[in-house]
User: What shape does this take?
Amino acid sequence: MVKDPVTISPELPVEEAISLGKKHGIGAFPVIEKKNLVGIITESDITDVVSNALGLGDSDSKRITIDASGKRFGYLKDLIEVLDKHHIPLLSIMSIPKSDKEDWFLVLRLKTKDVGLAAEDLKEKGFNVTNVT
Assistant: This one.
């Protein structure tokens, strides 16, 4: 048993819990609120949160991946305008750095069953759409 375990509060963002887990090499944390144990969070819980954020398993959503290399300021506004035009709600957006850490991919999770026309409009606006699933 660990005498002084690393603990987290219920309000801690999930990405900070992931960072703490990596830093300390642990996969579960006691959750403490006002000096009281209120629960435990595990790697499985964190995986569930991230999976939900990515929309995994949601048959009513689609994913678009965009290579955002060299994009200018204001490009997100253009992206949202295309989604608005097609009445497609944006469920989540995630930026994933490329290996050089200078550029990134954008991963969009959209609440729609058909993203084809929106993907075409994004391409017409100069977005490098690399994947649609």
Q: What stands out?
A: The helical segments are 14-24, 43-54, 75-85, 116-124. The chain is about 30% helix and 30% strand. Strands lie at 28-33, 36-42, 62-67, 90-97, 104-110, 128-132. The radius of gyration is 19 Å.
